[in-house]
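#struct-pred
JK: can someone run the complex with 5-O-phosphono-beta-D-ribofuranosylamine? inputs below
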Amino acid sequence: MRTIQSGKGMVLGILGSGSGSNMQAILDAIAEGSLRARIALVLSDRKDAFILQRAERHGLATGVIDCGSWATKFPDEVQQATAERLLAAGVEWVCLAGFMRMIKQPLLAAFPNRIINIHPSLLPAFPGVAAWKQALDAGVGETGCTVHWVDEGMDTGPVILQGKVPVLAGDTAELLHQRIQQLEHRLYPAALQLLSQRENHQN
Ligand code: GRF
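RT: done, structure tokens with the ligand placed:
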């Protein structure tokens, strides 16, 4: 098994399908010194995703994951090729940041206990899409976001870190999503730093 050298900092690969605001938050945390890491590769299954533009602006290596005509499926052979690209770039930790396809073998096998995700609810509540809207529709008084390990299920892996936000009177889905995202931008880098410290402790 690959091990991280103590004190070297984490080598991250980011997979995203959308805006990339969580990737930006990770970059900001690295720049301000609160997270010892570097991003070695950013991949998206959508060639027009803003996450790729953001990454390029920061001079990061980027690439497109080509799933052909599959709208949501992430075929095994594409997962294998993705794993190889990440490994070739030196990636040690894979961070999903708004990546809209399900991770299965062989990506999980290539990065055992090294793939994490951020989800906009207090898991196990409201897995799946538009979790903030699910929370609003359910009438809960608080929701939040979760950084968790990725397994073969839909947002089912063990929780690493969670943060709560209130649902306020008059909230719209958009307002609630914004409040959750503000917290995500603190929680994701904090969770990575926590994992980095744990790892260094074990080595
Ligand atoms: C975040 O809300 C995250 O919780 C969910 O997808 C969204 C990604 O946003 N998994 P961004 O692309 O990081 O801005």
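RT: quick notes.
The pocket of 5-O-phosphono-beta-D-ribofuranosylamine is lined by residues 16, 18-22, 51, 97-98, 118-120, 145, 181, 184 (CB under 6 Å).
The first strand starts at residue 10 and ends at 16.
JK: thanks, will look after standup
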